[in-house]
Design brief:
The complex is a heterodimer of chains A (335) and B (326). Chain A has 13 helices and 14 strands. Chain A is of the alpha/beta class and 335 residues long. In chain B, a hairpin with a 2-residue loop joins strand 4 and strand 5. Classes of the chains: A alpha/beta (335), B alpha/beta (326). The structure holds thiamine diphosphate (TPP) and magnesium ion. The site of magnesium ion has 6 residues of chain B, from strand 4.
Chain lengths: 335, 326
């Protein structure tokens, strides 16, 4: 913790999102022998999105543990290892495969501590990635954060920038509860300034990624980048949007979201996941309950259509919010 | 190992034609992918043609199969229309799934192909369910599940084989052992030396066959399908092969040496082998086989042209496509 307490502004350099994650894994594995990584194709291949590239050479096959295709076995082994003294980081190649592991995630990892009266802790991280945009079709493109948000006992993290990816992954690994860490497949090759050395972003803290006075856009993961692009377009029309990046959906930083809404009086919640039962409904309801009198208009939601993700490129785009959609709905909300 | 049996000219030419069609289809798909006309990802079946061809030659149109992410070969062997397959890869309205599915999700239910699958092991229980239908309704249909070595380590494999065995279902489980699950070699994924041995643990026959030799596959699958059709229960068939290409188009193949790839490609080429034994057994001449090759090349050209002429898939009312009834 010394490095953060020293408060000297850390030197940064530009890294890709997947490189930032890789660095967090490496630093945490160097720091703590109990941290191991388990998953499919994470060894020589370096993971489907190159997040574990080079780690096999650095830490060897006992700490970079490549597995057969056995999702429920892998996640369950991580639960057992976490209960008994290791700090496993599981890589699940696609969030869509969580379906195979859901019992171990929900009935075991999430509930163990509570069910057994606080005797145990389950310090594991389940890293995976979701989202559309690569033509991978219905079984490899979903945004499933609402599934996990609905389970008591899981924390839920969805970073949008390389720096947040690094800082939140490090914090997740050090956290004593099971953390679901959701990356987005189209963020891996985005770049940004990332602090060198130890860098921790606390769980439960949202961040204002752009300040504005006319409306608040609350969003997470890849849609943060879309919201920032949309805000630039809105600014040229004289509308100043504030963009709040939720970063951790559980625990949710209500204070920061409410403070922003109390300033702008209008709110648009944007996410890629389908609208029905989406986490945006939770955020909008929370705002309505807690800041109803501060609102000049009902909260709006902009989210995916209620369909599986189609394959063809033009179809795929048509079912998830794009930059233009955000601009359009923001304008409707402000006038 | 089941040994190869002599087969007649017609069967030999049919098997050769299906294998050549699959190989040519994969070659053209790779080309289209390289030209950025295909989106997403494709997994080539080149090198494994003998398995789909040999198994499906024993099936009727009303028998079912479930397929995998590497599914083009199964689809073709079960009688699919090449134009509609290309149209799907190209995101056209005339594609098998109207551009919704793409390479990893082609289904052709009219021909009994219940679909490719992006979830490793996802099709094994579904074939089991199809076999249950046949048994329940008293038909003599058979369900075949194709899946990889990697899928054999999923829970769905174990649970399905047990169900099929206790219910004595008309199912055939075809494990395509192409030596790798993505980057993981079979040697590191199994402590057992022969996957077919697992059948014992479920109480069904386990057959290990040389997946290079379409005659051997045809014979082994023939027995398994006959067993299933006559109410004697399921079989596990494990066919050894090698995928010529990377796991997906663009795979850097860091987990394989160049010597291995070049050597094994030559050693495991069911199509080249078929040509050799067809000629040696005097079932057809070089000229006959060249004619087959040329006809298929023309057919592929026509299919691609037909697909490219079709309109892009319509995005209108996608949510209306989700449920069968409104
Ligand atoms: C449940 C699930 N886990 C992981 C994957 C990612 N994946 C796709 S194909 C594949 C390897 C499959 O190996 P195998 O079953 O041997 O089939 P092959 O690709 O060799 O034909 C993996 C790990 C997936 N699609 N589904
Ligand atoms: Mg394989």
């Amino acid at each position: 913790m010394q490095a953060t307490e020293a408060r000297a502004p850390a030197a940064t350099r530009e890294l890709f999102y997947n490189e930032a994650l890789n660095e967090a894994l490496r630093l945490e594995m160097e720091r703590d022998q109990r941290v191991i990584v388990i998953g499919e194709d994470i060894a020589e291949h370096g993971g489907a999105f190159q997040v574990t590239a080079g780690l096999l050479d650095r830490f060897g096959p006992t700490r970079i543990r490549q597995t057969p295709i056995s999702e429920i076995g892998i996640v369950g082994a991580a639960v057992g290892a976490a209960l008994t003294g290791l700090r496993p980081v599981v890589e699940l190649m696609y969030v869509d495969f969580a379906g195979l592991a859901m019992d171990q995630i929900v009935n075991q990892a999430a509930q163990n501590r509570f069910m057994f009266g606080g005797q145990a802790r389950v310090p594991m991280v389940l890293r995976t990635q979701g989202g559309s945009g690569r033509g991978n079709a219905a079984q490899h493109s979903k945004s499933l954060e609402a599934w996990f948000a609905h389970v008591a006992g899981l924390k839920l993290v969805m970073p949008s920038t390389p720096a947040d990816a690094k800082g939140l992954l490090a914090s997740s690994i050090r956290d004593d509860d099971p953390v679901i860490f959701l990356e987005h497949k189209l963020l891996y090759r985005t770049k940004g300034a990332v602090p060198e050395g130890e860098h921790l972003v606390p769980l439960g803290k949202a961040e204002v990624k752009r300040e504005g006075r006319d409306l608040t856009i609350v969003t997470w993961s890849r849609e943060v980048l879309f919201a920032l692009d949309a805000s630039a377009q809105l600014a040229s029309d004289g509308i100043e949007a504030e963009v709040v990046d939720v970063r951790t959906l559980v625990p949710l930083d209500k204070d920061l979201i409410l403070a922003s809404v109390r300033k702008t009086h209008r709110v648009l919640v944007v996410h890629e996941a389908i609208r029905r039962g989406g986490y945006g409904a939770e955020v909008a309801a929370m705002i309505t309950e807690e800041a109803f009198d501060d609102l000049d208009a009902p909260p709006r939601r902009l989210a995916g259509l209620e369909t599986p993700i189609p394959y063809a490129q033009h179809l795929e785009k048509s079912v998830v919010p794009q930059v233009d959609d955000i601009v359009r709905v923001a304008k409707e909300l402000v006038v | 190992m089941t040994t190869a049996e002599k087969i007649d000219r017609k069967t030999a030419l049919d098997l050769y034609r299906v294998m050549r069609t699959i190989r040519s289809f994969e070659e053209r798909s790779m080309q289209l992918f390289g030209e950025n006309k295909i989106w997403g990802t494709i997994h080539s079946y080149a090198g494994e043609e003998a398995i789909a061809a040999g198994v499906c030659a024993n099936l009727r149109d009303d028998d079912w199969i479930t397929s995998t992410h590497r599914g083009h070969g199964h689809c073709i062997a079960k009688g699919a229309d090449l134009g509609r397959m290309f149209a799907e890869l190209l995101g056209r309205e005339t594609g098998y799934c109207r551009g919704r599915g793409g390479s990893m999700h082609i289904a052709d239910t009219a021909k009994g192909n219940l679909g490719a699958n992006g979830i490793v092991g996802g099709g094994i229980p579904i074939a089991t369910g199809a076999a249950l239908t046949a048994k329940q309704l008293g038909t003599d249909q058979v369900a075949v599940s194709f899946f990889g070595d990697g899928a054999a380590n999923q829970g769905t494999f174990h649970e399905s084989l047990n169900l099929a065995a206790i219910w004595k279902l008309p199912a055939v489980y075809v494990c395509e052992n192409n030596q790798y699950a993505e980057s993981l070699p079979v040697k590191r994924a199994f402590a057992v030396d022969d996957i077919a041995k697992r059948a014992d643990g479920y109480g069904m026959p386990g057959v290990h066959v040389d997946g290079r030799d379409v005659r051997a596959v045809y014979a082994a699958a023939g027995e398994a399908v006959a067993r299933a059709r006559t109410g004697r229960g399921p079989t596990l068939v494990v066919a050894d092969s090698y995928r010529h290409e990377g796991h997906y188009y663009g795979d850097p193949r860091k987990y394989q040496s160049k010597e291995e790839i070049d050597g094994w490609r030559r050693q495991f080429d069911p199509l080249a082998d078929a040509r050799t034994w067809i000629l040696a057994d005097r079932l057809a001449s070089d000229a006959d086989l060249d004619t087959v090759d040329q006809n298929i090349a023309t057919e592929i050209d026509r299919a691609v042209a037909w697909a490219e002429e079709a309109p892009l898939a319509s995005p209108i009312k996608l949510p209306d496509d989700v449920y069968a009834s409104h």
